Amino acid sequence: MRAENIPEVVILRLPHYARVLSMALSEGRELVSSQELGERLHITPAQIRKDLSYFGRFGRQGRGYNVRRLLQMLRQILGLDREWPLILVGVGRLGRAVLSYPGFAPEGFRVVAAFDSDPDKIGRRIGPLVIQPPSQIPETVARLGVLIAILTVPAAAAQEVADLLIASGVKAILNYAPVTLKVPEGVLVRDIDPVSVLQSLTYYLKDLPIEPRTLQPSLTPGALFRPEP
Amino acid sequence: MRAENIPEVVILRLPHYARVLSMALSEGRELVSSQELGERLHITPAQIRKDLSYFGRFGRQGRGYNVRRLLQMLRQILGLDREWPLILVGVGRLGRAVLSYPGFAPEGFRVVAAFDSDPDKIGRRIGPLVIQPPSQIPETVARLGVLIAILTVPAAAAQEVADLLIASGVKAILNYAPVTLKVPEGVLVRDIDPVSVLQSLTYYLKDLPIEPRTLQPSLTPGALFRPEP
DNA sequence: TTCTGTGAACGGATTCACAGCA
DNA sequence: TGCTGTGAATCCGTTCACAGAA
Questions:
Q1: Of A109, B18, B155, B204, which residue is least crowded by CB atoms under 10 Å?
Q2: Which residue from A102, A76, A131 is spatially nearest to B203, judged by alpha carbons?
């Protein structure tokens, strides 16, 4: 099919496909069916086949998909076959937590600079990075060819910083601030907002029948969390 | 309308409505139109009116919505007019960051217990909490009436911990582990997975035309980030 | 047989467009 | 005139169902 009108939800699912394929690969699997991928992700097999068909024909009828090959293709489609330099703005508690999160690097996302407007923080080191003032953003973004920024400033400062990032050439923002950013056409924003997720969860919980919440002996974990002898 | 088949996307938008209404309220606004709400959230006015119509008729024709009243209604609909006790499992870097995140408490989400299986961590204090072993989960959940858990354990442990949480009576999991959890009917899972979000962003960035990334003098921020005299 | 790839059918969310009320 | 509330129309993603290849 290879159309240009690929639904965004499809793109959002591809990283999950890649993740389970990695797992399957490390388990030594050579082939997987859409059925099996679906079971691991709670997605219907038809959905998976349709999603993949947007990009080409990667399976073999009667057999399934070659794990290594499909993973390779997905990484290429997603642009994961390279390193992506990121910058992070806002080195408060949240920013430091994101900086120290060990999950980015193995996937090729490297935070190459960190910024904060607090004079007490500027010049301090966080791991290998020296915190810089926001005035350095344009130069750094240009010099290092940064396209993605992580925004971990307080809500009140988010729009201002986003404007500066965009003026500097950033094309995508991973926004942790609980704010709807206004950005020009062509700039992408994705929000990470655990509080609003919790606030929607409570809708479903708010009048749950009150169950007897007595402790059953069977629930006490036995071997769980205790090393096997 | 008040139907029971309210689309989940609608529920996901309600917290955003509540957020901008709070802002409008603190700005002293008394009335807002669906138009204005839409502009602040990049949502069409029709969408907002339709969403709200699932729950009742809150607006006045020709005028708009009473900010205070609509906010009040939304908080009630979402179940935000009370405190929600949470527990957190997995006090690694990520878990500690989530624990120290100051955004939960003001919205009524209070982490009332933290668990980790590492014997070196058990007994240590984090703020007001003493880290407990997972074996304490069932008792704590039952005693405190906890319905929501935050899961910040390594991917390899996530399913096992989720099973224990669910057996203990937890009905919703905010899952930070990059794993698709298997849960029984009636248990809700929401994933927070910044890496997979980044991995989908790169799809749109991967063959962006290379612009001249020279630094324009106009981009150097002037007053920005410098206190007004 | 088995399992992919894909048009067609379906279903559900968004948008339209307008009646109705202030 | 201004803006809500809402059926109807539209749009778009998911699922179906089957042809086709191994």
A1: B155
A2: A76
Radius of gyration of chain B (CA): 22
Q: Mean pLDDT in each 10-residue stretch from start to end of chain B (229 residues)?
A: 79 98 98 98 98 98 98 98 98 94 96 98 97 98 98 98 98 98 97 98 92 57 37
C1’ C1 / CA A62, Å: 8
Q: Is the CB of residue B206 inside 7 Å of nucleic acid strand D?
A: no
Question: Contact A11/B104, CB-based, under 8 Å?
Answer: no
Instruction: Measure Cα distances from B149 to B89, B210, B229 in Å.
Output: 7, 45, 47
User: Would you say B181 and B149 are in contact if contact means Cβ atoms under 8 Å apart?
Assistant: no
Beta bridge partners of B55: none
Strand C bases contacted by the protein (CB, 7 Å):
1-7, 12-17, 20-22
**Contact flag A14-B203 (C-beta cutoff 8 Å):** yes
Bridge partners, residue B115, by sequence: B89, B132
Q: What is the pLDDT of residues B129-181, one digit of tens each?
A: 999 999 999 999 999 999 999 999 999 999 999 999 999 999 999 999 999 99
CA geometry: angle B95, B96, B98, nearest 5 deg: 65
Distance, CA of B11 to CA of A197 (rounded, Å): 10
Give dist(CA B164, CA B134) in Å, integer: 9
* Strand ordering across the sheet containing A129-132: A125-126, A129-132, A109-115, A84-89, A148-151, A172-175, A188-191
Of residues B63, B37, B40, B62, the one with CA closest to residue B50: B37
Q: What is the dihedral of CA B92, B94, B97, B99, to 10 degrees?
A: -70
Closest CA to A22 of B195, B122, B44: B195
Number of Cβ within a 10 Å radius of residue A198: 24
Listed as own residue / partner, the contacts of A57-64 with beta carbons closer than 8 Å and 24 or more positions apart are: A59/A34, A63/A31, A64/A31, A64/A32, A64/A33, A64/A34, A64/A36
